[in-house]
Amino acid sequence: MSEISYVVVFPSVFAKNKIPALITNIKKILKIRNQKFNSVKREGSIVIVDANDPVFASSAINLLFGIEKIAIARQVSNDFDTLVDEITKLGGNLLLKGEQFNVRVEGSPKGYTQKDLEVAATSSIIEKKSNLGAKPGNDQNYDKLIYTYVTKRNAYICIYLDEGHEGIPYGYHKKSALCCIYDELSAVSCLQTIREGFQTSIIVCYNKRSDLTKLAKILDRILPVTLAEKIPIEFYKLAFKPTSKNYQKLVGLIIEVLVNVAKTKGFNYVSLPVSPIVFPISYVEYAMNRFWQENIIPIFPLGGIGKEVFQSARDLGLEKYLRNIEVVITKRFGDILKPKKTEVQVCLQTKNTVQVTIGPNNVHDILDSLEE
């Protein structure tokens, strides 16, 4: 058996018919992250990456959307007897003393069923690793999952397995949407826009330095998935501090800022974090009508999202801000407040464009640039 480890990418259910776009994005992110690779190719319904460093490559690839799960695996023959031996050897080596394990096989085996292989491999591990005292578990109760995926040509025994971020490949629609980030919920909305396959151009609205620091940290989590090495971001300063009490005023102002920027920059699509699950339907109607007046197509990425909003927030590293999101989505809102033209113009005049080079110093680069 070859000792080469491969990165195995399992497309999300919505990306199974978009694998060529996913492969393109995998190659892009590896090049941006300076991860050398020999090949990225499709094998049935999965993608196999032959990378020089599978650990760092898998970490980079798992920034992408369109992935259900990602693994580092050993490639072996899909012959039944060979697979039983290799699962016993590799899977058994992953076990610690007394652990419960679960052998799971998926894919498209020929000449035998997935269940046949699971039972045979489980029995073999029990017999040959008896010194460990390892016991078989089940799909609901186990300490270690021994996962194998079988294709028509090979089989892949996973030595590491992680969940992906679902969605579809970035930029699949070949359409750009303008997003505005001004708080945690708007950041989740921007992430959802990316997850739905739009290219994004981001503007940021903030009031104080402390707000800017928090938003810069959020941006640091979003920018790597845009598959750009450099990205311009426009910053606008608000004349008031956004709170749950003046949220309807904030939303009204953000809508007008987005309308003006979209018209100036020529964007046909604008993403807005207004959802009928969270806000009164009047907010959605107002936003839709305002954008349609300017021949701009509004996108509402939070439209059908429920409690998943909290998982998206965790994806952004916003665990300590979950309470802020909860305050917004549980608030009783009054009518949306349309801002005065002078308020909109004052905000637009504070524009400051920062050219961000994607890297480890994103937050400091943003903060330093806005101090100049």
Describe this structure in words.
The chain is α/β, with parallel strands linked by helices. It has two domains: 5-166, VC0802-like (2-Layer Sandwich); 176-371, Rossmann fold, CATH 3.40.50. The chain contains twelve helices and 14 strands. It has helices at residues 19-32, 54-61, 80-94, 114-128, 184-195, 209-222, 247-265, 281-293, 308-315, 322-329, 341-348, 362-371; strands at 5-11, 37-43, 46-51, 67-76, 100-107, 135-136, 144-150, 155-166, 176-181, 199-206, 230-237, 269-271, 297-299, 352-357. A hairpin with a 2-residue loop joins strand 2 and strand 3 (46-51). The protein is elongated. It starts with a strand and ends with a helix. The model has no long low-confidence stretch (mean pLDDT 90).
Largest sheet descriptor: 8 strands, mixed
Task: Return the CATH class of the largest domain.
Answer: Alpha Beta
The CATH homologous superfamily of the largest domain is called HUPs
Quickly give the CATH architecture of the largest domain.
3-Layer(aba) Sandwich
What portion of residues belong to β-strands?
A: 25-35%
Set out the fold topology.
Blueprint: E1 5-11, H1 19-32, E2 37-43, E3 46-51, H2 54-61, E4 67-76, H3 80-94, E5 100-107, H4 114-128, E6 135-136, E7 144-150, E8 155-166, E9 176-181, H5 184-195, E10 199-206, H6 209-222, E11 230-237, H7 247-265, E12 269-271, H8 281-293, E13 297-299, H9 308-315, H10 322-329, H11 341-348, E14 352-357, H12 362-371
Parallel strand pairs: 5-6, 5-7, 9-10, 9-12, 10-11, 12-13
Antiparallel strand pairs: 1-3, 1-4, 2-3, 4-8, 7-8, 11-14
